[in-house]
Amino acid sequence: MTPITEVEGRRLALSNLEKVLYPATGFTKGEALHYCATVADALLPHLRDRPVSFLRYPDGPGGQVFFTKNVPPGTPGWVTTAEVPRMEGPARMVLVQDLASLMWAANLVAEFHTPQWTIGTPGIADRLVLDLDPGAPATVVECCEVALWLRGRLGEDGIEAYAKTSGAKGLHLLAPVTPTPSEDVSAYAKGLAVEAERAMPGRVTHRMTKNLRPGKVFVDFSQNAARKTTATPYTLRARPEPTVSTPVTWDEVASCTRASQLAFLAPDVVPRLERYGDLLAPLFDAGRAAALP
Q1: Is the pTM here over 0.70, yes or no?
Q2: Quick check: 85 and 122 in contact, CB under 8 A?
Q3: Is the sign of the CA dihedral 106, 110, 111, 113 positive or negative?
Q4: Among the ranges given (60-69, 92-101, 208-217), the one the predictor scored with the smallest mean pLDDT
Q5: 8 A C-beta contact, residue 261 and residue 165
């Protein structure tokens, strides 16, 4: 029998709580739901008002993995949805606005991915993102070196950057910007990636071409496009272990000498929140948002 629980006055059917989603650690679906509830105060602000794409893995990362962008069948009527413009025509997508919606979404077993704009101003970005993806044998250690260079370069333009792990292999840099068309943010981000490649030609590539990437850090600027999304801060990832896209300090980035130093699992995140709070909270401070040059 599927357990029914009440969250903020909403009745939720939470299924298969004992199912092991991450065989490497025995981490269950129930533990994943508990994680989302525990970090909700930090996670929800990064989801709120942003249409969510779900990368679903209902049987764990070793099972079927698929993207869901449209409102999933069976979505309760009380879950907020909104029409989102797309090149191929408008779509209706989910907005995770509150704890009840978060727990409903977590029950789908999914990564959360969000765009750099909010539903009130589609295609007008309020943040810039750079995805640093290492090509083996490079690791997050090399990403940290590139991240520090990019932080300095952004600082020259008056833009303050913040870092988080991708929850996979690399790092994401995020910066609050004054509302700017996504295509302009993309163009600026591409320029940064090209500059980084020129400054560190043996360590950086701005091109996605696979044969250019071994041993280098790919600075992916494309996630600034209006149609693209990035793993939301604090989301669990579909990896062998319950890794989390986790905000990190610049001191942690500067001192990283082993990939394991910037690999965080779900049980690691609450102690970090207790110690640091949300390191990405400045993204919501309009006073920190910078205009692109």
Answers
A1: yes
A2: yes
A3: negative
A4: 208-217
A5: no
